[in-house]
Design brief:
The relative contact order is 0.20. Helix content is 58%, strand content 11%. It has one domain. The protein is mostly helical.
Length: 79
């Protein structure tokens, strides 16, 4: 191990529910569950499936920022 890995006190991959949230958000972000050719109502000019996918991607980014901020703790930050 290098120095940076030895100084980690906590990291996100050790918290189980984080992975469940990632899986759910990725499942929503990929439009595999929409019927073929479905357009639906327009949301801000985008078909519904595009708006849902973009919203899920934004939630993925926000979730990642939250997880890093909350669960990635270095030894220096703890002191």
């Amino acid at each position: 191990m290098n120095d940076s890995q030895e100084q980690l006190v906590s990291e996100p991959r050790k918290v189980g529910y984080i992975w469940i949230v990632y899986l759910l958000l990725y499942a929503v972000a990929v439009p595999w569950y929409w019927p073929e050719g479905y357009r639906g109502p327009l949301v801000l000019g985008f078909p519904l499936w595009v708006a849902v996918s973009l919203g899920a991607v934004l939630l993925l980014a926000a979730w990642t920022a939250f997880v890093i901020r909350r669960y990635w703790i270095d030894a220096e930050e703890e002191a």
